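Aim 2 progress update. The chain analyzed this quarter is reproduced below.
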Amino acid sequence: MKAMSSRDFAGLCREYGISRKTGYKWRERFLSYGISGMAEQSRKPLSHAHELAETVVCEMVRLKQAHPHWGPRKIRELYRRAHRGTEPPSESSFKRVLERAGLTQERKRRVAQQSGRLATGIKATAANEVWSVDFKGWWRDTDGGKVEPLTVRDEHSRMILELRAVADARTETVRACFDHLFEAHGLPSAIRSDNGPPFASANGLHGLSRLSVWWLALGINLERSRPGCPQDNGAHERMHLDVRRELQAGRIGRTQEAFDLWRQEFNTQRPHEALGMATPAERYQPSERRYEGTPEILDYQGMETRRVQQTGVIRLRNEPIRISTSLAGWDVGLRERESDQVELWFANLLLGHVHLNTLSFKAAQPPNSRATGGAATGG
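Predicted structure tokens:
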């Protein structure tokens, strides 16, 4: 075929009303791709000035792979902390990159329900106002052993104070953990728990167990969720979800080093939206109330006192009055009131009233939240 001269090609372009530049571009498409090359093509630029560098994209992916359960916002915060002084890519850029890499999944959404928070419960506004405690639901490790870690968390800072694979749930075992926690962090104002042992007793006066009696003796108030309502301690349960996904899913056994490593990462690396993307360790500080051990006696400030016997009984006017075996070995305070009644206190909790005419005991109305009243101090 005879080649077309440049003059003839220019005339052909004029005939079809296009520039020679466009004509040459179309001719190159046809020679390279045939008739399919003449179809309309995207006008999207192959690159742009704000395109992310390959090294940035690789680091985004690496951070996500190291923290597979963290969302784009937390991954971006990790990137920002690693590159202080430079502005990180936008959250939408992180989301787009991680989606293209197949590293995200759509969250399941649930209809919001009433919070179910205790009507007179408190929401902590500072560290150590409220600690929450629970056992994470058990799982089987790779050897078939049962693992049920104890978890303790500061409500305000989200700091996980304890994550321990304890041998059992006996009072002595859990008390030893709290003895260590109090020495390390001081005393909280209140501890929130469910109604199960060893934190509470279904049959005890006001649900008191030997463990919660010890807390009261140290001047720590009690908060409890309603029976069958884990949403009353919802933030703690949400932390348990992280434990389930990141530890239980791997069937981690009683290797405390693994629990300590996970807890350290949670406290020092994982940013929280509720904390302005700070980490729990950046918001937590030890309590000003130092732990000085268990008081040998409680000072009831001028009240008469009686020692609770091992059978849960005190003696008044030489007659036995049954109180609670959870208080065995402790002193209770007696304060006279009008109409032949005596108030019965343990630490700062009003237990009930003794009617002097009949020497019968009637429990006070159970408190709905923290035990208050200020009757005794450790001495």
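Confidence is low (pLDDT under 50) at residues 109-120, 369-374. The chain has four domains: 7-38, 54-100, 130-283, 298-378. These observations will guide the mutagenesis experiments scheduled for the next reporting period.
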